[in-house]
């Protein structure tokens, strides 16, 4: 199979928008970001035939056929976003990963709707394993309305992985909870939208990094762009502070375009690297 240097595991999403269905999901944004950063990406996912995967043409894709695709609908109002889960695809475990891809140097576990087996965190010897746990931090009611939930596996999973990226919105702004999790994690990066991010290293106090100001068009996927850039630069340098600066640069650019078009271009990556080095 095609060699993979950045392996993203999780559901692609069928996002319902007023303009029709659109491909989404953390693995899609992260893989395109990794490609722009010069890392050959691979995706392990599950979906039905109703997802348009053409935006991922040219990327290594191991897709499990499923009767349903994970489908979200976002509704925006005066109080912000209300999200609905309209369908959920098949679960994913280590046995679904091609053997050749188990040697990928960077692995991104990216659940959207609790689809990943937590034991995946132990399947990759010697890799930098990054986690974006948003799919373990949400539940949904009978109508599909998504709401935050507790993460009972946090105490087990946080020490296992190399780095964790999540949004302050994922925990309803509960900084006390984030500080407790930070004591368990090696590196914990918390994205804060246009404010930038805060980074904890081995339980020490958070260090804040401001994001460059941008005119926001679509924030969807900005956190996934951030995560991929953060994991890759952490792999390259071992420096979480430098990784935060680069990730902020690319995430801020991503909000200026719609959907997957927010993934960075190689030219934007080059400029962001220069700015990060100067910072």
The dominant shape is globular
User: Are there runs of 5+ residues with pLDDT below 50, and where?
Assistant: none
Structural class based on helices, strands and sheet pairing:
alpha/beta
Radius of gyration: 17 Å
Q: Which series of helices and strands comes N to C?
A: EEEHEEEEEEEEHEHEEEHHH
Strand order of the largest sheet: 5-4-1-8-9-12-13-14-15
In helices, the fraction of residues equals 10-25%
Mean pLDDT: 95
- Main β-sheet description: 9 strands, mixed
Number of strand elements: 15
Distance between the termini: 39 Å
Percent range for β-strand residues = 25-35%
Total helices: the number is 6
Mind explaining what this structure looks like?
- It is a single chain.
- This protein has 279 residues and is α/β, with parallel strands linked by helices.
- Helix content is 24%, strand content 27%.
- It contains six helices and 15 strands.
- It has helices spanning 26-36, 154-157, 175-182, 222-237, 240-254, 266-278, and strands at residues 6-9, 13-17, 20-24, 41-47, 60-65, 71-77, 80-87, 106-109, 128-131, 138-140, 146-148, 163-167, 187-191, 197-201, 207-209.
- Strands 5-4-1-8-9-12-13-14-15 form a nine-stranded mixed beta sheet, with helices on both faces. A four-stranded mixed beta sheet has the order 3-2-6-7. Strands 10-11 form a two-stranded antiparallel sheet.
- β14 (197-201) and β15 form a beta hairpin.
- The longest helix has 16 residues, at 222-237.
């Amino acid at each position: 199979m095609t060699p993979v240097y950045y392996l993203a595991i999780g559901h692609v999403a069928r996002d319902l928008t007023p303009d029709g269905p659109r491909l989404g999901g953390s693995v899609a944004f992260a893989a395109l970001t990794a490609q722009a950063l010069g890392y050959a990406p691979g995706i392990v996912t599950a979906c039905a035939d109703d997802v348009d995967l053409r935006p991922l043409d040219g990327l290594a894709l191991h897709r499990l056929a499923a009767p349903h695709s994970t489908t979200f609908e976002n509704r925006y109002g005066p109080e912000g976003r209300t999200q609905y889960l309209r369908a959920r695809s098949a679960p994913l475990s280590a046995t679904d990963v091609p053997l050749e891809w188990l040697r990928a140097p960077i692995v991104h576990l990216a659940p959207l709707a609790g689809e990943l087996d937590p034991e995946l965190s132990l399947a990759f010897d010697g890799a930098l394993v990054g986690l974006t746990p948003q799919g373990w931090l949400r539940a949904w009611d009978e109508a599909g309305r998504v709401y935050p939930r507790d993460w009972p596996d946090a105490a087990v999973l946080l020490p296992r992985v190399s780095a964790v990226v999540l949004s302050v919105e994922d925990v309803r702004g509960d900084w006390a909870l984030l500080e407790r999790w930070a004591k368990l994690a090696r590196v914990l990066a918390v994205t804060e939208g246009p404010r930038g991010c805060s980074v904890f290293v081995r339980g020490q106090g958070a260090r804040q990094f401001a994001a460059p100001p941008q005119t926001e068009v679509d924030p969807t996927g900005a956190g996934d762009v951030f995560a991929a850039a953060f994991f890759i630069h952490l792999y390259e340098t071992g420096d979480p502070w430098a990784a935060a600066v680069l990730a902020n640069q690319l995430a801020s650019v991503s909000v200026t375009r719609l959907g997957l078009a927010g993934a960075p271009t190689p030219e934007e990556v080059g400029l962001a690297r220069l700015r990060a080095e100067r910072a």
